[in-house]
Amino acid sequence: MNIYLPIELSVRELDSKLLTATLAASRGHDVLISDLEPIEKGISRGILPPGIFHTKSLSPTDHKIKRHQSTIDCGSMITSIDEEGGLVDENYLADAKFRFSNHTIKQCSAIFGWGADDASTLKKIYPKHSKKIYKTGSPRADLWRPIFSEYWGKPRGTPNKPYLLVVSNMSHANYFEPFHNLIAINKKGKQYERDPKLFFKKFGMASEHYLTTGAFIEAIQHLVKNNNGYDIVLRPHPTEDVKSWKIFLEGIPNVHVIREGSITAWVNNAFAIMHNGCTTALEATVAGKPLVTYVPYKQRFGNKLPNKLGYHIQSVKELNIIVNKLFKKKNSNSKKLWNTSFPTQVSKKIFIEKDQLAAEKMIIIWEALKNNEHHLSQPLNLFKLKLFLKKMKFNGALGNTLRKLSPDKFSGLGSESNGVIKNLKFPKLEKNVIFYRFEKLKKILKINVKLECKFLSGKTILIKRNKK
Question: What is the pLDDT at residue 419?
Fold first, then answer.
């Protein structure tokens, strides 16, 4: 069977897609991991044979509905897991109405839920489609398990000293584009039509994000002056401007602003994690890492659920006491056994079975779909695909050149995914890093069959069974 796994945000999605692809390939399937455009155009132009197109969301926007319908018309099937997951919300009700519709769910053959909250809410709101909604868990949460600690290793740029990981989730204040561009993006996606209150809520969120940014800078300054020998790694949110944080924290010793690689590696190697309203709070809880929730003022627009986890701190003085205490205990923390008895607010959001990965559950469901759709296993023409990818790269470079020569005339030419505009969400992949992670996964998963990992372009990977 052909399985297509498009990626939008590589630091968030790449590793879970590699896990899913490696497991699927070990069961005899051909899996293509890529940015969206090669998969979308490859299917619509007949370069890629029909397969499972696994998308990150079913938002009822016109362009997404059109894309999915075109994919279906070409013989492929749509499945989805909401990469956002609604993990920071008290319940999934708003996301279920905002990020889905009867139309988009009807187009989909299977929907995978992170946990009881999203799966049961979707079934309640869309009862006609309940049979295609499954509580599987997420492959991203699979990688939070201690069994995968060897996979992550130490990320590049890790300080020599033990470090406190400070996770930023203040994207409305530190967005890599001006705030009005964020509003424009939401308008284009018709988000304010679906939720009129969201427009003014965005301004409230932005104001609080600025306040929280200032409070975190003050807290970092205090911790640096009063710590017992550790460094601090500030991890900006994927949509935040790294340069902003480097300017904010410039001149403060032993502080590192790093966004490289998946956050899971940084969580695994930190002696503790500090956050405010961040999904990483749930990840740290699942991974059994000490968590500090810093809420220095009363928030109206903050994410309440993650802020209920870990140590709840309101002052820099108390923060310093707790962090130093966790630093002293760091050696004993690393030896703790994994505890799968999570707080209720975590267990309702994230479904984890000790003996089976979420990725395995998803693949089994895909295989059940394939049994009724045998055309999903037509062979992939590797020569045609490579030629197609080269042509896309050439067209992207041509569009870039023309736009530089005449920006007004050729402003619409080219594509962000082809490198015409620097893609902050999905930079070019490093071949040696991908191969290293692929081999690590095979070892951890104890896969004995021969698999191939083919690097087809800077953003396209094919993983399959070696049939020789």
Answer: 37
Q: How far apart are CA 425 and CA 238, in angstroms?
A: 7
CATH topology identical between 2-145+351-465 and 148-337:
yes
Q: What are phi and psi of 112, to 5 degrees?
A: -105, 130
**Which token pair is 26?**
């070990």
> In sequence order, what DSSP letters do the residues of 170-214 get, joined into one string?
-HHHHBSS-HHHHHHHHHHTTHHHH-TTHHHHHHHHHHHHHHHHH
Per-domain boundaries in the chain: 2-145+351-465, 148-337
In angstroms, what CA-CA distances link 426 with 83, 190, 229, 239?
15, 24, 35, 12
Spatial separation of the C-alpha atoms in residues 210 and 441, rounded to whole Å: 40
Cα 298 from Cα 429, distance rounded (Å): 42
Q: Which fold has domain 2-145+351-465?
A: Rossmann fold (3.40.50)
Closest to 319 measured CA to CA, from 359, 362, 280, 272 = 272
Question: Could you tell me if 351 and 137 are in contact, meaning their C-beta atoms sit under 8 angstroms apart?
Answer: yes
What are the DSSP E strand ranges found in 84-185? 108-113, 133-135, 163-167
Mention every residue, 6+ apart, whose C-beta is less than 8 A from residue 323: 164, 223, 227, 272, 274, 292
Q: What is the CA radius of gyration of the chain?
A: 22
Which CATH class for the 148-337 domain? alpha beta
* pLDDT higher than 70, residue 434: yes
Distances from the Cα of 33 to the Cαs of 39, 196, 229, 400, 427, in angstroms?
9, 36, 42, 25, 14
| Burial per residue of 454-465, b for 16 or more beta-carbon CB atoms within 10 angstroms, e otherwise | eebbbbbbbbbb
The Cβ-side half-sphere exposure at 271, using a 13 Å CA radius, reads 22
Residues 163 and 233 sit within 8 Å (Cβ to Cβ): yes
| pLDDT, tens digit (0-9, with 9 covering 90-100), for 12-35 | 899 999 999 999 999 999 999 999
Alpha-carbon gap, residue 417 to 396, rounded angstroms: 9
Total-model pTM: 0.89
CB 305, CB 89: distance < 8 Å: yes
How confident is the model over 287-341, as pLDDT tens digits? Answer: 999 999 999 999 998 889 999 999 999 999 999 999 999 999 876 555 556 777 8
